[in-house]
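Sample entry (439 residues):
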Amino acid sequence: MGRPKLDLDALRRLLPYATPNQRVSLEALIAHDNYRRAAKALGKQGDGSFDGLIKRVRAQAARRGFAPEHGWNPPAQRTESAGVTPDGFELERLSELVNADGERTAAWLKLRQEREAAEAPPPTFLLDKVSQYTDGQGKLIGQWKAFSPEKLARWDAVKAAIAEAVRPYEGGGGNMAGPDLAYLQDTLTVYGLGDPHIGMLAHADEAGEHFDLKIADRVTNEAVIRLLAAAPPSRTGGLVLIGDNFHAQNDQQVTPGHGHKLDVDGRFSKVWRAGTRLWLTQINRMLEKHSEVLVWVVCGNHDPDLSFLLAEWLRAWFRDEPRVTIGDNIREHQYHLYGKVLLGFTHGHRSKPDALMGVMATDVPDWWAKATAERHWFTGHIHSKTFWEIRGCTLESLRTLAASDAYATRAGYRSKRASIAVTYDPEHGEILRATVGVR
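Predicted structure, serialized as tokens:
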């Protein structure tokens, strides 16, 4: 008994229920209308597998409600509304009753009150996550959103902390308004701030005077303001930080070379912020008086690494201010040639005073030859005023701005405290000097 004739229409109705591979075989049967020719077209050795294939696809169709051989037909596609949806309502569910021919004989609608769009999140909340669900065709059916107030609060706290951290430095680093150039003189005024020792702590009962970060800030500001008032309107101003600009360079609070314990007013971060804020203030004040500001940061024996970093930090801060130049302080001795005036800067804890003339002549011989008006060294370290004139070169040590600490007091040091402003003419050398005492 042979196989029954293929029912091509029945096979076509099975196509929507077949898998992709099953569909290929069914389409071959439909195209060739013959088991053997379809098998040959698919490269199969025999045609017996088609029977099992058709049986499996029919079972799949029956599970989805299509079994015409048993009187089960899929409902016909609805082309007209099952009813009128009242205003303010939307369709939630549709149920239909169909006959054996797939014709709809009745329908039921389930409506729900129309939902409004989700409200916007409160202004103090951030979207945390979104959950959604879809139907079998991928159409969005519902969605849930979760909002978190804590995350926004944490971000606000971070922004507030950053703003507070940079507040001491507001106003620097950009192009500041300078003085009226018509009133400036072609001179250089050098402001010598000897051994500031920012961060040093002293008690009057032990050292004779109180000293801490607040006092250092007040004393330095007062000294610079008075020096600026006393100095002439030079076109160029030079700020000399002669070394020991910080009392200690880290939280170990000892001298790097010998490990002597130091008395420090607070942790490193507190001292660093106070010192950088202080020098920014002085440079900004000088920009108001001079059209050009030069800064020499000398490394001392208390802060060899930290003063190097201070110069790098200032250079980065004023990178967009063409009127400020920060000298390179990698080398122990720094120099500046102004017309026929040659200036040298070093802390003084390594080089002996009578050797500095030879050091200058050796380091910058071309500048030495050009400096026929004056060759002069500024040093610090000993905290007292001294002056040498050594065969074609002069040298002075600057007094300190800081009070004596317990160590210096016990050792018997009693130097006065002062700062100076020295004005140079490019042809004639020093022409004016102002001294401001500090108490």
